[in-house]
Each structure stands twice: as structure tokens, then as C-alpha cells.
Amino acid sequence: MLRMWVIDRLGPDDTDTDWSPEALASDTLDALTFTPSQAAGLTKVWRELPTEQILKLRHHKNLTTHLERLIGYLEPGPLREHLLAWTATRLLLP
């Protein structure tokens, strides 16, 4: 979230990976352990899941909070499409 805040306030800097939207997008995706389809499948039965799985889904929701803003900085392509899938999935997460 801090990186997204800096990118929003000061603008992206493609020469420094800390402030590059593409690097932030890649780092975010690397931190996620589920695919969007796996997470969406789990949300259908999330109340029946063990607490650890529910916490993982919540963690994914927290990790993807900034994606809607980040997408605006990315060029069309596979990375952007993957983030768009996550923004739709995020709405389903507990």
C-alpha cells in the first residue's frame, strides 16, 4: 500500500523498481499463493473452510487492495489482465 501511495502521489519511476507500477504488479502477484480461479472457488464455501484457509483468503484480499488504482498505470497486456482478474475475485473474498 505504501508503494501504491507513493506512485499515486509522486508518480511512477520506471528507473527504480520500488516505484515502478510493473514491478509492484509483479511483486503483488508473486505474494499471492492462489490463482484468481482457485480463490473464487474457495469463496463459494469459505464458511466451511478451516480458519487457516479463511485467513489466507483474507490475506489475499488485503494484498490486493491497491489493484484497482494500480491497473490505471499499466499498459494493456497479460500483467494488466491478470490484475483485472484479481480485482473481480477480490470482491468475492471474505
Walk me through this protein's architecture.
The protein is mainly α and 94 residues long. The protein is 63% helix and 0% strand. It is built from six helices and no strands. The chain has helices spanning 2-10, 21-31, 36-43, 51-63, 67-71, 78-90. α3 (36-43) packs parallel to α6. The longest helix is centred in the middle third of the chain and has 13 residues, at 51-63. The mean pLDDT is 96.
Observed structural traits:
single chain, 94 residues, mainly alpha, 6 helices, 0% strand
CA-to-CA gap between the ends?
Answer: 19 Å
- Helix percent reads 55-70%
What's the alpha carbon Rg, rounded to whole Å? 14 Å
What is the mean predicted local confidence, pLDDT?
96
Order of helices and strands: HHHHHH
Outline: elongated
The amount of beta strand, in percent, is under 5%
Number of helices: 6
Largest sheet: none
Query: Low-confidence segments, ≥5 residues, pLDDT <50?
Result: none
